[in-house]
Amino acid sequence: MQQKRVEYWSEVREIEALKLIFIDESGVNLALLRLYARALIGQRARGRKPQKRGRNISIISAISLEKVVASVNIYGAVDAVTFEGFILKEVLPKIKEGDCLIMDNAKINLGEMVREIIEQEKARLIYLPPYSPEFSPIENFWSKVKAMLRKLKARTYKDLIEGIELNMLAVTQKDIRNWFTHCCYCTS
């Protein structure tokens, strides 16, 4: 695993950060709530946890150093066909020749069709080394989006979808730049 990390950085360090686009998927549901609470000294913090979490909503997103490139919400799980559709319809129209798409090694990302359609656009595809989320700024993106959704406490799908869309807009270029820097990509 260490060798794969070294190989990854030797390949990526020569690529300008503006050309990097990170793609990942995550899931949310109606049972999202804050992980911590406060109470007066000697008193217990109380809250209510929903009995039913409902169906998952999967979110597939792509971020570059400058912005959220694309994002899609899907009811249920993401499969290879859905992921390929996201790449084709949402990401490819927005990339430029020489861009580098980086994603994890999830099974849905490993299809040969994904590589072919990306390389047809004169872009590169690089996979993160296994078990290396610390190299991916989009993991920090998910952290912020989910923290805001927990605070929202959406208990209907309509509210949850609206919350996702609002939280995507709340992500600033400064946030993204800081996440890239935190993951050791040169942003200056």
From TrEMBL:
InterPro entries (alphabetical): RNaseH_sf, Tc1-like_DDE_dom, Transpos_IS630-like
Protein name in the entry: Tc1-like transposase DDE domain-containing protein
Highest taxon above the source species: Bacteria
All residue ranges annotated as the Tc1-like transposase DDE domain in the record: 20-160
Record GO terms (molecular function): nucleic acid binding
UniProt organism field: Microcystis aeruginosa Sj
